[in-house]
Amino acid sequence: MPTITLPATLEHMDTVIAFVDQQLEPYGCPMDVQFQIDVAVEEMYVNIAHYAYTDQKGEASISCHVEEGTPCQAVIELRDRGIPYNPLARQDPDVSLSAEERAIGGLGIYMVKKSMDQVEYRHENGYNILTLRKQFSQPAEA
Known about the structure:
Elements: E1 3-7, H1 13-24, H2 31-52, E2 59-67, E3 72-80, H3 107-115, E4 118-124, E5 127-136
Antiparallel strand pairs: 1-2, 2-3, 3-5, 4-5
Helix pairs in contact: 1-2, 2-3
């Protein structure tokens, strides 16, 4: 699976998104689906950059590939060696409340869970591993 590893800092956000988009492009991923994937990857990468490492700087690895089929499925994996944290264990925010009434935090992972077909977390061999899956149909041949 194609992978990039880079310092887990916000300065590398454009590189991360460009890498994911580059992997999706050959499969004709529709722009609306690509946008959903980009937003989800950005949200999860920002969380790594802000919260995974405390005193020291660390790295993040992003893998992306497409499983061909009908439909195709984009599979994106984000890995870090930061503090073990399962973002999926957090309770979903009560979106029926106004922004002023709602507790701070949790809205980003909630949006990711709603926009992706599947989101999985595991902690393995010292790594936090978050996997995002999103199905899409390739454009019809002209």
